[in-house]
Write a structure and sequence with these properties.
single chain; about 350 residues; alpha+beta; Structural Genomics Hypothetical 15.5 Kd Protein In mrcA-pckA Intergenic Region, Chain A; Pseudouridine synthase; 3 domains; 10-stranded mixed β-sheet; 4-stranded antiparallel β-sheet; 16 strands; about 20% helix
């Protein structure tokens, strides 16, 4: 069982007025270093009257109250935990896993155990522990906790280097392909296209990403194709099934881009919360399936790459998980008239 956060509450006095918040917190919480407090602030663990605080240099005012959520201490290295894994492929250099929704990829504050890394350490033994860093052994890319689907993990140093190079290129050299499917609210005007919008960590909530043109923003492009559109009795699009390919690999990229495009992923509690009322437009069966899903309807359905050791082209497909399929079937039901769109996968063209 994960230990709870240690919540500290600090009230700003006249003596504290005008000082930096990291310095003030340090004077009230003596056991935490100033560097540690600065890290907590940047990670979004400090909040107050002005909302979540992100700048250690913020000047405080008398009468303000701030809470500091100190995560429980994490073990220095992940521990092996025997957990059932859905293994799609395995050889001496790498392993392909079909990750279920709800599983975190690697340990992080609040998720010291039960992660994919914990399970892989038990499955692979000591051979995995020194590859790619102590906290993330073998991990070359990740999926969000509640995104299901295919993920490749390196089992050797040479595989880690080779896979990391391919993921760093994001498919620009033709070796890596990543295909996702998503159920989203509404439907884009165009059946296929690209969303090109830079992404950075939100200034207001450090746990979220946002479209940004600031100095810390990073270029991000998502290609999409509409596979099916589901309409109400008046012919208005309620939802659609989309296929997506990543040209870049930013944190929460698909979820942020689809929300920016006006069609957030169904069930997304972070980026699609403003569309909760849209569920009332669904049939009772679809509403029930969406409630049962209880996560974003996003699945990593396809993964292809060049084997980093043999050079052989590998390609894998993952069927939609049961909860995703149940929602899709409900949307296709008699209460919503289905309009099939072009079913060719979204392709991106590149200058040669």
């Amino acid at each position: 069982m994960t230990a709870p956060e240690d919540i500290r509450t600090i009230e700003i006095t006249e003596a504290d007025a005008g000082q930096r918040i990291d310095r003030v917190l340090g004077s009230h919480i003596a056991e935490l270093s100033r560097a540690r407090l600065q890290a907590l602030i940047k990670q979004g663990h400090v909040a107050g009257t002005r909302g979540t605080i992100e700048e250690p240099g913020l000047r405080v005012k008398p009468g303000e109250r701030y809470t500091v959520a100190v995560p429980p201490p994490e073990p220095a290295t992940p521990q092996a935990e025997y957990t059932s894994l859905s293994i799609v492929h395995e050889d001496g250099d790498l392993i392909i896993v079909d990750k279920p929704a709800g599983m975190v990829v690697h340990p992080a504050p609040g998720h010291a155990g039960g992660t994919l890394v914990n399970a892989l350490l038990a499955h692979c033994g000591d051979s995995l522990s020194g590859i790619g860093g102590v906290r993330r052994p073998g991990i070359v890319h990740r999926l969000d906790k509640d995104t299901s689907g295919l993920l490749v993990v390196a089992k050797s140093d040479v595989a880690h280097r080779g896979l990391s190079e391919q993921f760093a290129a994001h498919g620009a050299d033709g070796r890596l392909t990543r295909r996702y499917v998503a159920l989203v609210w509404g439907a884009p005007d165009r059946p296929r296209g690209a969303i090109d919008a830079s992404i950075a960590r939100s200034r207001h909530n450090r746990t979220r990403m946002a479209i940004s043109q600031g100095p810390t923003s990073r270029h991000a492009v998502t290609h999409y194709g509409v596979l099916e559109v589901f309409r109400d009795e008046k012919g208005v699009p309620i939802a659609s099934l989309m296929e997506l390919e990543l040209e870049t690999g930013r944190t929460h990229q698909i979820r942020v881009h689809l929300t920016h495009n006006g069609h957030p992923v169904m069930g997304d509690p972070v980026y699609g919360s403003g569309f909760k009322s849209s569920a009332r437009k669904l049939s009772e069966k679809a509403q029930s399936a969406l409630a049962q899903l209880d996560r974003q309807a996003l699945h990593a359905a396809g993964l292809g790459f060049e084997h980093p050791v043999t050079g052989k082209r590998l390609s894998f497909e993952s069927p939609m998980p049961a909860d995703f399929s149940a929602l899709l079937v409900a949307l296709r039901g008699p209460e919503a008239s289905k309009a099939a769109a072009r079913k060719a996968p979204a392709r991106r063209s590149r200058a040669k």
